[in-house]
Amino acid sequence: MQPVRVKVSPTITVPTPRRRKRPRDPLWDAIICQNYGLAAQLAIELGISRQAIYLWYRVPSQHVEQVARMVGVPAKRLRPDLYRRRRAAVGSVPNLAEAPCE
Predict the structure, then answer these.
(1) What is the number of structural domains in the chain?
(2) DSSP letter string, 8-33
(3) Element (H, E) at 75
(4) pTM of the entire predicted model
(5) Pick from 79, 88, 90, 95: CA 20 to 30 A from residue 25's CA?
(6) Is residue 102 part of a domain?
(7) Helix or strand or coil: residue 3?
(8) For the chain, how many helices (H) and strands (E)?
């Protein structure tokens, strides 16, 4: 893919970088595209514009719970990165039952 060149003067051309569009979350894209009028309902409920909802690449963290309740999809499925369980390493948690009391 060649960068777009802009002419500055008859002898100098400056390459301009192209911005890559961030891919949308497939689940969020399917929910919005398949349910006509959902963006308007969400906008009214959340107090934001309908156009703002169409600009989302994924559901923002401050709106996950409300959107999950309205759409009927678990919040964990809408934003799995926010609901990952952290695994503790084996032996990293001290056993308090065996600790000596002072």
Answers:
(1) 1
(2) SSSS-EEEEPPPPPPPPPHHHHHHHH
(3) helix 75-78
(4) 0.59
(5) 88
(6) no
(7) coil
(8) 5, 2
